[in-house]
Amino acid sequence: xxxxxxxANRREILTSVGAGGLTLAFSMASKAEAQDGxxxxxxxxxxxxxxxxxxxxxxxxEVGQGVRTMLPMLIAEELDVxxxxxxxxxxxxDPKTYGRQFAGGSMATPMHWEELRRVGAVARAMxxxxxxxxxxCGPGDCTTAPGEVIHTPSGKxxxxxxxxxACASVTPPDxxxxxxxxxxxxxxxxxxxxxxxxxxxxxxxxxxxIDVRRPxxxxxxxxxxxxxxxxxxxxxxxAAKSVKGxxxxxxxxxxxxAFAPGPGQIGQGLMPGVAVVADSWWAARKGRDKLNTxxxxxxxxxxxxxLFAEQAKTxxxxxxxxxxxxxxxxxxxxxxxxxxxxxxxxxxxxxHANLEPQNxxxxxxxxxxxxxxxxxxxxxxxxxVAKTLGMKPEDITVHMVxxxxxxxxxxxxxxxxxxxxxxxxxxxxxxxxxxxxxDMAHDHYRPAGFHFFRGGVDAAxxxxxxxxxxxxxxxxxxxxxxxxxxxxxxxxxxxxxCRLEVSTMPLGVPTGPLRAPGSNAxxxxxxxxxxxxxxxxxADPLAFQIKLLGDKDVVGEAPAAYAAGRMRGVLKAxxxxxxxxxxxxxxxxxxxxxxxxxxxxxxxxxxAHVACSPxxxxxxxxxWVAADVGSQIINPMGAMNQVQGSVIDGLxxxxxxxxxxxxxxxxxxxxxxxxxxxxxEAPQVEVQFLKTNFPPTGLGEPALPPVIPALTNAIFAATxxxxxxxxxTPDMLKA
Amino acid sequence: xxxxxNVNGKAVSADVDGDTPLLWVLxxxxxxxxxxxxxxVAACGACTVHVDGEPMRSCQIPVESVGKAKVSxxxxxxxxxxxxxxxxxxxxxxxxxxxYCQAGQIMSATALLAKTPKPTDAQIDEAMNGNLCRCATYxxxxxxxxxxxxxxxx
Lengths: 735, 154
Ligand code: FES
Ligand code: FES
Fold this sequence. Notes:
The structure holds 2 protein chains of 2 kinds. Chain A is an alpha+beta fold. Chain A has 4 domains: about 5-200, Aldehyde oxidase/xanthine dehydrogenase, molybdopterin binding domain (Aldehyde Oxidoreductase, domain 4, 2-Layer Sandwich), CATH 3.30.365; about 220-300, Aldehyde oxidase/xanthine dehydrogenase, a/b hammerhead (Aldehyde Oxidoreductase, domain 3); about 305-350 and about 445-735, Aldehyde oxidase/xanthine dehydrogenase, molybdopterin binding domain (Aldehyde Oxidoreductase, domain 4), CATH 3.30.365.10; about 360-435, 2-Layer Sandwich (Aldehyde Oxidoreductase, domain 4), CATH 3.30.365.10. In chain A, about 30% of the residues lie in helices and about 25% in strands. Chain A has 19 helices and 30 strands. In chain A, a hairpin with a 5-residue loop joins strand 21 and strand 22. The longest helix of chain A is centred in the N-terminal third of the chain and has 28 residues, at about 110-135. Chain A starts with 11 loop residues before the first strand and ends with a helix. By secondary structure, chain B is α+β, with helices and mostly antiparallel strands. Chain B has 2 domains: about 1-75, Beta-grasp domain (Ubiquitin-like (UB roll), Roll), CATH 3.10.20.30; about 75-150, Orthogonal Bundle (DNA polymerase, domain 1), CATH 1.10.150. Chain B contains 5 helices and 5 strands; from the N terminus they run E-E-H-E-E-E-H-H-H-H. Chain B has helices at about 20-30, 80-90, 100-115, 120-130, 140-150; strands at about 1-5, 10-15, 50, 55, 70. In chain B, strand 1 (about 1-5) and strand 2 (about 10-15) form a beta hairpin. In chain B, helix 2 packs across helix 5 and helix 3 (about 100-115) packs across helix 4. The longest helix of chain B has 14 residues, at about 100-115. Chain B starts with a strand and ends in a 6-residue tail after the last helix. Chains A and B meet through helix 6, helix 8 and helix 17 of A and helix 1, helix 2, helix 3, helix 4 and helix 5 of B. One FE2/S2 (inorganic) cluster binds near residues 43, 46, 57 and 59 of chain B.
């Protein structure tokens, strides 16, 4: 397996093109072409071969969201090449050339929809120019069909492959000067394409971080304190070294502030621990079992989920620490309301539980470091390694390797820093692999949170007052990573009397983004409490939601604009898809719930249909999703998979998962006590994408948040029991 | 100690401790990295291989207990009459997201279809319930099993 030296011998010169900050790197002629078997890079993304194969660089990390396929589709479409002739390579980590390279925020589509189509269009224009020069005609006399330039007047043709060399002398046009295709002419965009690596996946070829092998490679395991960042007091290194195959065992002092570098920052520095390096990973583990490590006391060793809950109650009873929003007069409005509701909500810490545990391979030689990492965020990782190891970033190369799931976990690079440190110390290439138990004990968890609501409705079914006192984690005026809420959180701006308050308590647990960060928790509480108000008003919950959205198309301004019209559109659509109007005919113990949520630029409304039995068991029978992510679904094959996966992911968390803290540590350790939904529980998920007149946006995240309140609202419809705390347990629902 | 194993129809040998799980012998010693580590406690199915045709969690099998049994891994499925149909269905429906669980899924699905060529939904649930998919591709896994078995996809 060789992940090495991808493109390392190509000379690329950065050229800034156009006024819009659009940059493309165009390769100049170099020795590399000869070495490359005649392959001719047209620009940083596109390389042509004489046989007509077109190699396209996939710029962003792939963790299962499908960008390694989807982004090259944008280039291939405008370049006008048959998809079968496209070869995809992973780009080097090189933000100067490619811009930011990361997998997060469902941003790949909105950031690249325009830019990468123009990259393809530039390459096509260069091919046309090369052909026109050869034919001694103007470029206007030429057009293309997949893989060839056609001289329109005569019908003469040249294949792209035959023009590869001639393209070297063509000056690339300004990307902004080119006209992009009419979507009606698309041959690739909008057509279902299987993931480029599908054959490798189904035949078990090496693809993932955990599969990387280097000559002379050793294997490492790294034991860290269950109380986050506690230092090593003692460890029996000699006992570990006595195990056959163990080469080295050593203590790493690390940085006891590794996970709390500053307010709001995701910690990912080097945690203290003990490394064991061996000929095989199994030997390293056996050595580790003999360490008998003792950990130093740590100030956070008393914290627990129970104490957090008690503190939250105390904070909620007092005056809020701050009030990010206070519209109208909530107290007066509550007094005047026809009906009022009060409710306290809770959601727990969650782990990402990527199926591939964190791992990284590193090789330190002659002052240089080479790293293979299944990271979602390679460049910040490189910078972090440089800082921690006292190296220059230019002496470090990070190769992006496919990750077995991302979900935000691999935006942090803690495993990368550990692997780099251990490899330098070991003096050999090292693959560090966390155990599942390490992975669950050392996550950057989705933070828990507490919401204390009061709300009111009038006799006509309007929401008259909304008050949320959010008790979260943080220090000073900062939130712990991903533990925040903005002042425009819906239904703020749609309710005249609206007060949002915040109080925080300090936290000694690393937190960070989990798929649809913030939204994956806030959707549950906001959309559940709206459902409570709908029932208080004796209203149809779906009609109540549409009414709450008012009649304006857009409320507020960018970047906090909320397209209420788009949300009404998906709500109406999901009502029709799901047969919402007929839900009264469901048998006893069954019910439907609706919820909607806007996140990551996508508008989603979802209906869940559940059946609840007297013993408290919940079966989700079906989920309907109506989505508005703009004018074009780029790869319907991947899009559907993302949405269905997000929905089941959300249900899995809501029905099964929580990380509890006790004695300063996470209590759960593996899939035995942190279950994922299994196939027997997974419902059918029907999806409809509404095509609207907006630029396309991403799909990795926004389908997840609304399914959780759709589920809990459905449980209420089925049982009359309101779920105000996650995960849903049978005890809550027993008849 | 040196163990001779039959993996995908070939004799291979590995000099490892007898208590080493088959998973790590396959991955680290023999280089069959298609078989994956997910939990190490028989809870995820990522490490599923066939031992004499039966789907087994290789993280739970000490290498010393394998003996003469025939071990098949995902790397051997292209040559398996049912396995290759399952792989084809997986490709056509583009089942995978991250793909990490899929070797194990395909091994379990192949073992199911080898015994039960036209499984019902309940039989699919039973055979596949030990295989977690963190990306939650279950809708497509079910459809691909139906397709590979020539049944209508719900
Ligand atoms: S690794 Fe064997 S079942 Fe999870
Ligand atoms: S495809 Fe990612 S775990 Fe199944």
